[in-house]
Amino acid sequence: MGNVPSTVKHCLSSEQLLLDYPWLKSWLLEKKDTTTHGYPECVKIVEVGPRDGLQNEKEIVPTEVKIQLINMLSGTGLSVIEATSFVSSKWVPQMADHSDVLRGIQRAPHVRYPVLTPNLQGFQDAVAAGASEVAVFGSASETFSQKNINCSIDESMVRFEDVINSALEKHIPVRGYVSCVLGCPHEGYIEPAKVAEVARRLYELGCYEISLGDTIGVGTPGSTSKMLQSVVKEVPPQALAVHCHDTYGQALANILTALQMGVSVVDSAVAGLGGCPYAQGSSGNVSTEDVLYMLHGMGIETGVSLPKVIEAGEFICTALHRRTNSKVAQAQSVKF
Amino acid sequence: IDSQCISPVLSDVAAIDTTTHGYPECVKIVEVGPRDGLQNEKEIVPTEVKIQLINMLSGTGLSVIEATSFVSSKWVPQMADHSDVLRGIQRAPHVRYPVLTPNLQGFQDAVAAGASEVAVFGSASETFSQKNINCSIDESMVRFEDVINSALEKHIPVRGYVSCVLGCPHEGYIEPAKVAEVARRLYELGCYEISLGDTIGVGTPGSTSKMLQSVVKEVPPQALAVHCHDTYGQALANILTALQMGVSVVDSAVAGLGGCPYAQGSSGNVSTEDVLYMLHGMGIETGVSLPKVIEAGEFICTALHRRTNSKVAQAQSVKF
């Protein structure tokens, strides 16, 4: 059997592959067996470790360490790495070096480095530092919006509209985040319809993708399913991503549920960086390693090398003097 | 970011859904903490602590609590007090207390101590069988046949375990057909339920699905249980997959007791608390009280001077 270049294999439909490589038929049939029925063939991982992960780590990480982490991640096959956040250093000291980080990284071809830009000022600073993709961060909870970014959901949409319009003028794509999609630390239960509404507004403003975040990790396959049923009425599943927190250990189960409902973009953080600011000592982001292990075990293509991500995780955990949150990395680090 | 928040009441955000399509309405939890969990803990637990743990679990709504193992104390010192534990617990009505009985001697000791349900422990891996119980799979089946026949004569139900169903620490990949064969043999010998164990936790929804597709050809899904280890963080995803394939019995351990003997420092059993949180959040009935299981978990972790492996218990123990 000959070799199929990974760039060809990655995310091509099986019909197209058969036309180009007729000898692939039996290989593909075998692959279809391993890809469990009802799941996408490919999943895009959005690596949020350097931003969302580090933002929630107590220890301030030196700029050169952040740069090295991103450079290592750039060599793993990841196609999207959220690099930093152009938020005021008064609010998020960890991200004070945003311009230095963005300018300092070695940008790999075929990898995008979105940055958070909460407002027009942040956007302009990001562009000045060379940003070619940005993200805005809304909420499905009114109270969380007030406490987190000091304005109502409606007010935040006005700010985002400014950012998005400016970005689109410069042909800079914008990703939209919705937080608290399965629960809010202040309000508790969040109506799926509210999540759908906020997602729709961001999508209509021009965000190409909406990442739905279970900010406090309380979601289950039940609430994930209900929420997505509402959201897909307003935003096509191909434009959705899930950003699951593992605070209650539910992340992989929730991701699995989302995949079954047509979502094929998953946010995760190397080494499960970033605790939960709302439950001290508890975990936050799901580990990229654990997500990759699951997806690869299901025959789902990601284009990402698990061993290389584990390596990047070991690097940052050593730098942070902390243990990895990834169970895969933990298990791999000991001899069977 | 303001970190001062009011703790959301779990019920507000968790159990809000009716049964999600394609899942069973009810799931039976088989609590294996006192046996499988403690067996893999380094610290020897005093008999009275084991008894108190089981008594606390008996008040949670759990209907099956694996109490102990009638294995030689030479091999498993943690279970040396098996008869005292079984005699010492306060048996709640509607709760069953199966015990492991690897051979006829163990079975007879178990019956003498009042056992009313037993379990035998086979393997889908030849090498694991040799290293774990010092005999081949075929030889183990002969032993189990003796136990099962004696048990059935006394109307004592027998549960069968199959280990290494998704991978073996020695052999690596295990053929689904082999798992199906061993499960079938135990079922045909008379086991009422077969618990399929991912002993080293390497399984994923992909391999879980493939394995179960083979097994259900030989054993009806209603007679199957999954015993998932969380060593690679895959347990809940694997359980979800099994439920979608018609399995409705799940083994788990309070506080995720029991590390992985094959990956030191790594976790083993999936936590009962985390499983319950997921199932209740899906509107699936279990009859078990999550807060009471968390309480039992706190008790045993204090006694063991260790942190819980349950993420739910961890999150609940801190103020939001």
Which structural traits does this protein have?
homodimer, 336 residues, alpha/beta, nine-stranded parallel β-sheet, 9 strands, 11% strand, hydroxymethylglutaryl-CoA lyase (chain A), hydroxymethylglutaryl-CoA lyase activity (chain A), Aldolase_TIM (chain A)
Describe the structure.
2 copies of one chain form a homodimer. Chain A has 336 residues and is α/β, with parallel strands linked by helices. The first copy, chain A, has helices spanning 6-9, 14-20, 25-34, 49-55, 63-74, 98-104, 120-128, 142-149, 153-169, 192-205, 221-231, 251-260, 288-297, 306-320, 327-332; strands spanning 44-47, 80-81, 84-85, 115-116, 134-139, 174-179, 209-214, 240-244, 265-268. Chain A is 44% helix and 11% strand. Chain A has a 9-stranded parallel β-sheet with strand order 2-1-9-8-7-6-5-4-3, sandwiched between helices. Residues 1-15 and 21-36 of chain A have low confidence and may be disordered. At the A-B interface, helix 11, helix 12, helix 13 and helix 15 of A face helix 1, helix 9, helix 10, helix 11 and helix 13 of B. Chain A: Pathway: Metabolic intermediate metabolism; (S)-3-hydroxy-3-methylglutaryl-CoA degradation; acetoacetate from (S)-3-hydroxy-3-methylglutaryl-CoA: step 1/1. Chain A: This is hydroxymethylglutaryl-CoA lyase.
